[in-house]
Design goal:
Length: 487
């Protein structure tokens, strides 16, 4: 049976799972192993059932018993089994076995692969939905190094059997995509959901590596996950690779800073430094277990026509990574949704660092009309947690008055609500700020860069202006760049 769907303004055909598995099986050069832990041999059964598997499947195994698994893949330091490190060990071990046992000289055209997953499905009490790591190490050319695709999923279904079936479909899609869609990573990403709905599973982390993906930036791939509705938030580290949010945020004190960062300015740097200094001194904050997150919302990445400018996103990402920051890309327009997301991973104190304008927006009722309880419901979700807002002042339109939490104006209906949270210690003013920064605005700096104006460099942190010029970010064109391009 062939299914049709609309994509990229044209109709495409989705092969059935049997067709996908059979195409792999009938390719005489594809040969590899399946190692699945935690949810049965759900992926490999599609290949067995399709027919012609004897020329494709070298081995299929499930090392369910922990002691048996440890004897094969080794013991993890944290004694956990559903981890990225465990998956990588599985892939490396199985790939090495193929290389050792199937001589290259006898199989010069074979493209070896290892598929693996380590997952935990929903528990009997149905408190934990289950999650897992799924990956593949494979060759496109027998003479080239291996490529790798590793992803993390969260199950959304409430039945272990259904989750197992979902895993089998995903695995089949991944193997097929790796061999036949590797040259189009963005499409490969979408094809992972063939014959699946987004309410069955969530992909919140994925990384591509290897020779065929040498030009792939995983930060851009992470953006696609949010853009395609595969997850609500993704995180990448300073090295540019996607990281599992749970690993970064688990049981941490979190200080989040939302902005456009287009580009990062001295104001952003000052807010970061001063709010972090205050946050670390809080009595329920452990400085050694504190994580600062720079967050950009999807709405902040959209241009006037509603589309996401990927080059603009990459420019911001490069700058933030160059400064050593961990970045979260989210679909959380409202702050309370961001706080709820962090609360999935920690019960410890959290902080939001923001400017006066952002706090005024939080007290604007129009953002909460979709909630049955309106702004009160949102504030219950926002401030019921152990949360504080660290407020950076703003220069008023008169150019003289500095607006802080004491003199900012909210809508008259919100005055008493604002007072309640302010005088209960939920809003903390940043007082040790640099007054020279109050006239710096990202949008002004961005426009100066685009117009080729002078003087914007002094508004940015050390080293940022040089990076913008060297890499021609945000449309910056220096004389050196123009000379180089003309050559």
């Amino acid at each position: 049976m062939e299914i049709k769907y609309q994509s990229d303004a044209h109709i495409e055909s989705i092969p059935s799972l049997k067709e996908k598995a059979l195409r792999i099986n009938l390719n005489p050069n594809i040969y590899g192993t399946f190692a699945e832990i935690g949810a049965g041999q759900e992926t490999v059964r599609h290949f067995f059932r399709a027919g012609g598997a004897s020329g494709t499947i070298a081995k299929a195994m499930s090392a369910y018993d922990k002691s048996f698994s440890d004897s094969i893949y080794g013991i993890e330091e944290d004694r956990r089994y559903v981890t990225e490190d465990r998956l990588k060990k599985m892939l490396d071990h199985e790939t090495n076995l193929i290389e050792d046992r199937i001589p290259r000289k006898d199989n010069p055209t074979k493209m070896y692969f290892s598929y693996a997953n380590t997952v935990t499905t929903i528990d009997f009490a149905k408190r934990y939905k289950g999650h897992g790591w799924v990956g593949m190490k494979f060759q496109i050319n027998p003479k080239e190094d291996y490529n790798m695709i590793i992803l993390h999923i969260r199950f959304k279904e409430n039945d272990a059997r259904l989750q197992q079936e979902t895993l089998g479909v995903l695995g089949t899609n991944l193997i097929y995509g790796a061999f036949y869609k590797y040259n189009e990573p963005k499409k490969l990403l979408r094809y992972l959901y063939d014959h699946l709905d987004k309410d069955q599973m969530e992909i919140d982390t994925i990384n591509f590596s290897g020779p065929v993906f040498k030009n792939v930036d995983n930060r851009l791939i992470s953006l696609q996950l949010v853009k395609n509705g595969m997850t609500d938030a993704v995180m990448f580290a300073p090295d540019g690779n996607n990281v599992l949010p749970a690993r970064v945020l688990y049981k941490k004190n979190i200080l989040a800073f939302r902005g456009s960062f287009r580009p990062v300015t001295k104001v952003n740097e000052d807010i970061h430094d001063k709010s972090l200094e205050i946050f670390k001194k809080e009595n329920r904050v452990n400085p050694e277990k504190t994580k600062v997150i720079f967050e950009i919302t999807l709405s902040n990445l959209r241009s006037h026509d509603g589309e996401i400018d990927e080059q603009d996103f990459m420019d911001r990402a490069r700058l933030l990574c160059s400064l050593g920051h961990t970045v979260l890309i989210s679909n959380f327009k409202e702050y309370y949704r961001l706080v709820e997301y962090f609360s999935l991973y920690t019960k410890n104190r959290m902080g939001l660092a923001m400017g006066v304008n952002n706090l005024v927006d939080i007290f604007d009722e129009k953002y909460y009309r979709h909630l049955s309880g309106g702004i009160l419901e949102a504030f219950g979700k926002l401030f019921f947690k152990d949360l504080r807002v660290y407020l950076y002042p703003m220069l008023d339109k008169d150019g003289k008055t500095i607006i802080t939490s004491d003199n900012l104006k909210v809508h008259p209906r919100m005055k008493e609500l604002y007072k309640f949270f302010k005088y209960n210690g939920k809003v903390v003013d940043i007082t040790d700020y640099d007054t020279n920064n109050l006239e710096i605005f990202s949008r002004k700096v961005f426009q100066m860069i685009k117009n080729g104006d002078q003087g914007w460099e002094k508004m940015l942190p050390k080293g940022v202006a040089e990076l913008i010029k060297e890499q021609s970010l945000f449309g910056c064109e220096t004389e050196e760049v123009l000379i180089r391009d003309n050559k």
